[in-house]
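Exercise: predict the fold of this chain.
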Amino acid sequence: MKKIILSTVVVVMSATFLSATTNKEIKQEAKAAIMKMGKTLKMHMKQNMKAGGPVQAATFCSDKARGIAKEVNAGYEKGVSVKRISLKYRNPADKPTADEAKVLQELHTAFDTKKSLPKMLVKEVGKNHYKVYKPIFINKGVCLTCHGAGDVRDEKAYKLIKAKYPNDKAIGYKKGDLRGAFVVDIVK
């Protein structure tokens, strides 16, 4: 009887965990997709900040960032897409799904209790379907121009943001805070 129970546990456990090879391959694919998305958005933000300061950067973010993200996603291999998610989202269209919110909450709990966070976290969603999460931190002071507390946010830029997103939750951050995560959806 003990042998039957033990073998059942092993079968159930092996169905839940990815092989080391699969995990590594999934992470590599996700890393490449995240780097492309992050680099593209960062480049546009820098250009807009340099050209017109926080107001132009905020305008770019609210008017064009989603379109650029869509274009970048169109260039990925079929079955791969990337987005940024947060429990404190600005645009309601960026609200995380229930499973994504659960992972974000786990990351926030680990962060708040000073536990180390994984560089990337792979979750198997279904057969040949994975979501890979990479935490995003507020590492640069410039992010606080639109996402910081009231005393550090740019008033003109935030007035523009608040007009477009009256229920904005993406504020009140300090340097070093966990902002959210990139999530790469991969269907093989």
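Check your answer against the key: The longest helix spans residues 20-74.
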